[in-house]
Amino acid sequence: MGFFDRFKKQNQAPEAPPVPEVEPRPFGANVVEIAKLISSGDEAVMTDIAACTGEPSAWFEAHQDRYEARGVNSAEDANLVQWLGLVDILEEHGWVCERDWKDELEDFSYFVQNLRGFQKLGLELDQDWLDEDEDISAWCGVLAEQWSAQGVRMAVIGIGSDSYVLFPASVGQLTALQTLAKEIGQYIQDVTEE
């Protein structure tokens, strides 16, 4: 039997070479892609995002008051500077709105209806659909039902606070955004899944 064992070993398939590790994309590249998807490539947004991701320290210095309002006092964490810069840039240009978790229905409705993505997607929001005694998560659940024919959900960008950074997104767009955010240790998701 020892004689045949030698042939078996020789006929075994060679081990596959180790799979080379793929270099992860730089944090800023994903931030740029996220901004592009949410803003439909808005030129002003993309210009600001390029500046923010290209030189996070300089962006921080130029917008230090915004960061300090969020409790960030240095540009040491370049990824955090870029992530919060993304939110501020999108909000400044009308693509997202940041709302407190205990927002009033009237304010929530006003800010959501004035988002550029809301208008671009041709969405409708009737305050009578929503119960003023509920909260943002419940309201977004109702909107998901109302917008189901259009395949649109209210999404949230996670920033580690009790506020909601909201924007409407198609289901397909939301899937792509979730993947891009997850690749860099951040999250974007359907508000109702939070």
Highlighted features:
4 strands, four-stranded antiparallel sheet, alpha+beta
Write a short abstract of this structure:
With 194 residues, the chain is an alpha+beta fold. 52% of the residues lie in helices and 11% in strands. Residues 9-14 have low confidence and may be disordered.
Number of strands: 4
- pLDDT average, as an integer? 89
Helix content: 40-55%
- First-to-last CA distance: 63 Å
Walk me through the structure.
With 194 residues, the protein is of the alpha+beta class. It contains ten helices and four strands.
Itemize the secondary structure elements and their pairings.
Blueprint: H1 2-10, H2 27-39, H3 43-54, H4 56-62, H5 64-69, H6 78-92, E1 97-100, H7 105-113, H8 116-120, H9 136-146, E2 152-157, E3 163-170, H10 171-183, E4 188-190
Antiparallel strand pairs: 1-3, 2-3, 2-4
Helix pairs in contact: 2-3, 2-6, 2-10, 3-4, 3-6, 4-6
